[in-house]
Specification:
The complex is a heterodimer.
Chain A (H helix, E strand, L loop, with lengths): L5 H29 L10 E3 L10 E5 L4 E6 L2 E6 L10 E3 L3 E3 L6 E2 L5 E3 L8 E6 L5 E8 L9
Antiparallel strand pairs in A: 1-10, 2-3, 3-4, 4-9, 5-6, 6-7, 7-8, 9-10
Chain B lengths: L2 H18 L8 H10 L9 E3 H4 L1 H4 L2 H20 L9 H10 L4 H28 L8 H23 L4 H14 L6 H9 L6 H32 L12 E3 H26 L24 H9 L1 H22 L15 H23 L14
Antiparallel strand pairs in B: 1-2
Helix pairs in contact in B: 5-7, 5-12, 6-7, 7-8, 7-12, 8-9, 8-11, 8-14, 9-10, 13-14, 13-15
Classes of the chains: A alpha+beta, B mainly alpha.
The structure holds protoporphyrin IX containing FE (HEM) and FE2/S2 (inorganic) cluster.
Chain lengths: 151, 383
């Protein structure tokens, strides 16, 4: 390559650089296309019915949403039913918090770990009231344990 | 038919036959050598092999068995693909159809399943054989590394296949398995998102697992196996102790043994497929966790560790083991003890490896048989 006249060398260098850039660009495009932009799954912010659907002082499991909805004197709050250890569904035991059937993690009423392999609390999700008066849960936003939605 | 016509047909037939098999059926030593070199399937073999490695006890035929199982999996897998539909609305029903509405469908599924499980076990044993005979030493270091990648690929293939039936077993095993992935610092969460094509195990995840299982991973596996075999020949044939250099022609001595092992594998796999049915539980249900929820058996050792601590079992131990396996042949550079089982010079290395292998097996057995609901200890014979 270095033998040839300067012009040929310039063309070769430019050509090689162009090919390399093109190839890398294609690879990058391919890699990016693999990251999904459209998700074919349930929306992460969803309505769960009207406040009066939930009796006072109750804990309701929404199995399809994998979510517990609490209604207490102070208001509403929502706690995930998905164990933070490896993703099994926890069961709620009245007054004792949550127990995971898979590897025995236990959580208190607020979702904080009291025992077992789980390392993080059960996420507590933000709730709001829609304009139509429906309760709305947003699982993209977690909130403090003392969060309550007055409704 | 007249004599000249018969002769013409015979000559035409010979021309066609010879265009495919240039040598014809070889009868002399010379012809056999030529046949070994002129056929695609045969030329991956050396033409002559050392008598030492022909003995069953030097390899136990394990690498070959792994390869045969892979071939069985390709053939049965292609047949299953004609009926299987990779969508959550249809996958489970198509499994039922395969079992009950396809002639020999159950048998096909059983064969695929047991060959897959067998392959995980056999590849592991093959690795142990290579270690205990010191066969990863120079010049075979790189082929050991290729082997480690093959082991990982084998596990990945089994794991991706596990989701496809879309029953409770599949769904929760993959839930637990992909949650372990998420524990890797920094890359864990994005890797899980990429693998599932979203946040949950749904349509996108099933399709991704399907494409990985049926196209990407088998292609990778086939390419790496080709490299693995090529390197066996280029590294001077299988490892054998220096000195014992007597050789024998590969045709018939090696080929006969290969055929014998093939028959043996076919009989065993088909017997297993006739005797035991592959499980199919109820359709996947994200709202209901079975108790206990277990990963596939070859990951239950890890799940047992994960029960003590997710970072320990999910990240530290597997990463350390893979790295240790990959660098092993470059760290353990002492010569000696190659091609002999449990050579005295290698007593320390063999003891360490054997201990680790026993730990892996014991953890797997505990996770499989001694863990019940809530991952509590149970005695399997008291159940
Ligand atoms: C899909 C998986 C694999 C297949 C199909 C396979 C196949 C084979 C075959 C057919 C041989 C010839 C000798 C024999 O039959 O034992 C061989 C040799 C060898 N394999 Fe594998 N193998 C696999 C995985 C592995 C693994 C996991 C390792 C180690 C980590 C490994 C390391 C080696 C080495 C170093 C040799 C040369 C041994 C010698 O020279 O004696 N292979 N393999
Ligand atoms: S998944 Fe809940 S304890 Fe393991």
């Amino acid at each position: 390559m270095s033998e040839g006249p300067p012009r040929r060398r310039v063309v070769l260098t430019l050509g090689t650089a162009g090919l390399a850039a093109g190839g890398l660009g294609l690879l990058a495009a391919l890699a990016r296309s693999v990251v999904p932009d459209v998700l074919y799954e349930a929306p992460r912010r969803f309505p769960i019915g009207r406040p009066e659907d939930y009796p006072p002082n109750s804990v309701t499991l929404l199995p399809e949403r994998r979510l517990f909805v609490f209604r207490t004197a102070e208001g509403f709050h929502a706690i995930s039913a998905i164990c933070t250890h490896l993703g099994c569904n926890v069961n709620h035991e009245e007054g004792h918090g949550f127990v995971c059937p898979c590897h025995g993690s236990t959580y208190d009423e607020d979702g904080d770990v009291t025992n077992g392999p789980a390392a993080w609390p059960l996420p507590r999700y933000a709730m709001s009231l829609s304009r139509r008066g429906e309760l709305v849960v947003d699982t993209r936003r977690t909130v403090d344990p003392d969060f309550r939605l007055r409704a | 038919m007249s004599e000249p016509t018969r002769g013409r047909i015979h000559r035409a037939w010979r021309r066609i036959y010879r265009s495919v098999f240039r040598i014809g059926w070889p009868r002399t030593r010379q012809q056999r050598l030529a046949a070994m070199l002129s056929s695609l399937a045969l030329h991956v073999h050396p033409t002559r092999v050392r008598v030492h490695v022909l003995r069953f006890s030097s390899t136990l035929g394990l690498g070959l068995v792994a390869f045969y199982l892979f071939l069985i999996l390709i053939v049965t897998g292609l047949a299953l693909m004609l009926y299987y539909v990779p969508h959550p609305d249809a996958a489970y029903r198509s499994m039922k159809d395969i079992q009950f509405a396809v002639t020999f469908g159950m048998f096909l599924r059983n064969t695929h399943r047991w060959a897959a499980h067998g392959m995980v076990a056999v590849v592991f044993l093959h690795m142990c054989r290579v270690f205990f005979t010191g066969s990863y030493k120079r010049p075979r270091e790189f082929n050991w590394v290729v082997g480690v990648l093959l082991l990982l690929l084998t596990l990945a293939l089994s794991f991706t296949g596990y989701l496809l039936p879309w029953d409770q077993l599949a769904f929760w095993a993959i839930t637990v398995g992909t949650s372990i992935v998420a524990y890797f610092p920094l890359v864990g969460e994005p890797a899980r998102y990429l693998l599932l094509g979203g946040h949950e195990i749904g349509q996108a995840a099933l399709l991704r697992f399907y494409v990985l299982h049926c196209v990407i991973l088998p292609l990778l596996m086939a390419s790496l196996i080709a490299l693995h075999f090529w390197r066996v020949v280029k590294d001077g044939g299988l490892a054998a102790p220096p000195g014992r250099m007597r050789r024998a022609p590969a045709w018939p001595h090696l080929l006969f043994r290969e055929l014998l092992i093939l028959v043996f594998v076919l009989v065993l796999v088909h017997a297993a497929a006739l005797a035991f049915d592959a499980p199919l539980e109820q359709i996947a249900d994200a709202a209901r966790t079975p108790n206990p929820a277990k990963a596939p058996w070859y990951f239950l050792g890890l799940q047992e560790l994960v029960h003590y601590g997710a970072i320990l079992g999910g990240v530290v131990v597997p990463t350390a083991m893979i790295i240790a396996l990959l660098v092993l042949p470059y760290v353990d550079r002492r010569g000696g003890g190659v091609g002999v089982w449990f050579a005295r010079e290698r007593r320390r290395a063999n003891t360490v490896f054997a201990l680790l292998a026993v730990v892996v097996v014991v953890l797997t057995v505990i996770g499989t048989f001694f863990r019940g609901p809530n991952w509590d200890w149970v005695w399997p014979w008291l159940r």
